[in-house]
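hey so i finally got around to running the thing on that chain from the lab meeting. sorry it took forever, my laptop kept dying and i had to restart like 3 times. anyway pasting the input first so we r on the same page abt which one it is
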Amino acid sequence: MITPEQFEKLVDEAIETFPKKLREAMGNVVIVIEDLPRPGRTGEVEIHRGPILLGLYQGVPQNVWGRDRASGIPPDKITIFQASIESFAHTEAELRDLVKDVVWHEIGHHFGFNEKEIHEIEERRKQQKKKD
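ok and heres what got predicted. didnt touch it at all, straight out
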């Protein structure tokens, strides 16, 4: 288990690995880290392994509201669950990769991709990673 500050750094590093154009396009979204989801959240459709929720996107995807979103609307929220993720990672490299995967997945929802589309993108990323 790592400190919350170290975990936050992993999340920041994950975001920095995304193309600059993607990072700049992320608008009106806040990313927070919580230890574990509140009871009842595991039934919400987001990234999870079995009954364990790893990340959660809450908001209105960009492809729904477009670029002319009215000001004063609260930001979308992406929650990354540290203890949930740590329960699946046995090494520092696994932890770093899983954090990146969860952050990528939730940002995909922010841009409007559904679960099927995100899984297809994730498969392409895995195939590309194998080639590299």
